[in-house]
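quick one, 155 residues, struct below
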Amino acid sequence: MTSVLNEIMNDSSCKNYLLGIETTGKRSQLGTLDEILWILEHINNERITIVIDWAHVYARNRGVFPNTEEDFAKVLSKLEKAGVAKFHFHATGVIHKNGSECKHLSVMSNTPPYEPLLCVLKEQGFDFVIICENISSHIDDALYLKERYESCEAR
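---
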């Protein structure tokens, strides 16, 4: 797989693009945080990065992780150690069953809770992008996350 990804990224028509490999929300799929970090380590291409879909990580972990600032800080530390310089995240809520996502929801569902993540990002000054994926509420979700991010300094 790594040789195929390198071949794609070395193709002249892809020279101006970045590729993000996303964490997946089903246990039957390749796409845990550790699996993607392993791929990135073996590819060693600065134009290929990881995209953390927090709802997918949450669903795979049956809703017990990530929930706290410590949980999110642990993941962010792992990304830093892997050399990820700019964080790219997808945000949505999720209904999950048996370690797999079933349906995406608004981030306001608090599944996973995003305020702890946002506060860690702000406190540690990380460079990041968050894409709100729930098509029916992406604008409201983005405004909600912005408000939560700004409230972190008031704590």
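Residues 23 and 32 are 6 Å apart (CA to CA).
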